[in-house]
Amino acid sequence: MSSITELARLLAELYPLHDKQVGKRYRVVRELAGLTELEEVGGQARYVASASLRDARQWEQAH
Fold first, then answer.
1. I want to staple 12 with a disulfide (CB 3.0 to 4.6 A). Which of 18, 20, 24, 62 is the partner?
2. For residue 10, what is the DSSP state?
């Protein structure tokens, strides 16, 4: 069985974007015409302006 640390690492790899303001993780599904479709860990879709993903105050990229 995987440890909690291993599970957290896998989650960060699968869903590398962390929205600091709402505390949720997302993965990029697609980008089109300046919008990026994100998918939350729970499967909910969210659309954001692609340029806003560069705002380090809101978004954190897992390494």
1. 62
2. H
CB 48 within 8 A of CB 35: yes
Burial of residue 61 (number of CB atoms within 10 Å: 0-12, 13-18, 19+): exposed
**14, HSE (Cβ side, Cα atoms, 13 Å):** 12
Q: Using one digit for the tens of pLDDT, what is the confidence trace for 10-33?
A: 888 999 999 999 999 999 999 999
Q: Rg for the chain (alpha carbons), in Å? A: 12
Please tell me the total count of domains within the chain.
1
Residue 39: give the domain boundaries: 4-61
